[in-house]
User: Which sequence fits this backbone?
């Protein structure tokens, strides 16, 4: 891909991506167990629709679509930032244990302290945050290397997964209520969930713009970045912590949804290159579109069964990832 082709793709992507997000959002509002046409949705927004359509659109589908957009954006941004900090396209909140830390904290909150469920986003963020710090400290030896962080993260991921299973075994009588959350999904999500997730998600996405320059410089290698006056270790730590905030916000409402932070940034990178001025915003838009599309398909194509979106994304993401690996385009 020459420079002219790359620039053309970047310009075209910034036109197509917002349109794609709008189209999948409309798709999410119109399709489901009850099909509602665009004209009927417009009538609902104009306060002229039927009570049934108003209830379905305003109380069920609209908050679910908005949550899906935020969840996808957070997971994709988290994955893109981690891939830049680690200089490895295999990096992902789910791979290095960040999501597992947030997931364990969320499970403990929901099972053991259900009266504090309103603190779920904070608990998920703190779990992801503490996990990130712990992984970083484990990987530290007169500096940290991306490889050490990934290896430490894989080990911590397994440990936290075992701890989550242990909590579920001990409190087996309370597990049924969180099984859909463990599978990853947006079923039953409402304006309440959007209200307590949105501040964390929007703050994290806003701060991610500040990480564009450091992420680009880290692509050059630690030594080169240091010669350019960058505090490499501090920047890598800040990126990891920001990724924890983004992953924690997503985990708090969607559960353990995987592959978004791994596949979306990698696919965008293959399309338009490694420059984070383009990669990060396009990953955010791509992740948002993917989660809403997958959630709509999961709840409408398998009627009367609603398939958790995490299962569908794993079913789609794993083969795609293996295809890339087979073609040796992943490294």
Assistant:
């Amino acid at each position: 891909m020459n420079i002219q082709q790359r620039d053309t793709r970047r310009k075209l992507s910034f036109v197509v991506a917002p349109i794609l997000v709008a189209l999948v959002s409309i798709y999410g509002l119109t399709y489901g167990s009850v099909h509602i046409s665009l004209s009927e949705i417009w009538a609902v927004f104009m306060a002229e629709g039927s009570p049934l359509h108003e209830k379905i659109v305003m109380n069920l589908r609209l908050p679910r679509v908005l949550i899906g957009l935020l969840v996808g954006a957070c997971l994709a941004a988290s994955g893109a930032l981690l891939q830049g900090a680690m200089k490895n396209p295999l990096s992902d909140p789910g791979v290095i244990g960040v999501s597992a830390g947030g997931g364990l904290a969320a499970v403990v909150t929901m099972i053991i302290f259900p009266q504090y469920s309103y603190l779920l986003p904070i608990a998920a963020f703190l779990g992801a945050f503490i996990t990130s710090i712990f992984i970083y400290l484990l990987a530290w030896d007169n500096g940290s290397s991306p490889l050490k962080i990934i290896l430490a993260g894989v080990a911590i991921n397994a440990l936290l997964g075992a701890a989550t299973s242990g909590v579920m075994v001990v409190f087996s009588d309370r597990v049924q209520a969180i099984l859909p959350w463990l599978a990853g999904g947006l079923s039953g999500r409402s304006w309440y969930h959007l209200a307590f997730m949105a501040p964390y998600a929007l703050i994290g996405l806003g701060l991610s713009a500040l990480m564009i320059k450091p992420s680009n410089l880290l692509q050059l290698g630690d030594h080169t970045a240091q010669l350019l006056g960058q505090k490499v270790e501090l920047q890598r730590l800040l990126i990891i912590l920001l990724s924890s905030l983004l992953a924690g916000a997503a985990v708090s409402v969607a559960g353990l949804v995987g592959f978004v932070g791994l596949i979306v940034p990698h696919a965008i990178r293959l399309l338009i290159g490694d420059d984070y001025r383009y990669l990060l915003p396009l990953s955010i838009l791509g992740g948002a579109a993917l989660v809403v599309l997958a959630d709509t398909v999961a709840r409408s194509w398998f009627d009367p069964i609603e398939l958790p979106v995490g299962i569908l994304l794993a079913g789609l993401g794993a083969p795609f990832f293996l295809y890339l690996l087979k073609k040796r385009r992943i490294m």
In short: The chain is about 75% helix and 0% strand. Residues 51-86 form the longest helix (36 residues). The mean pLDDT is 85.
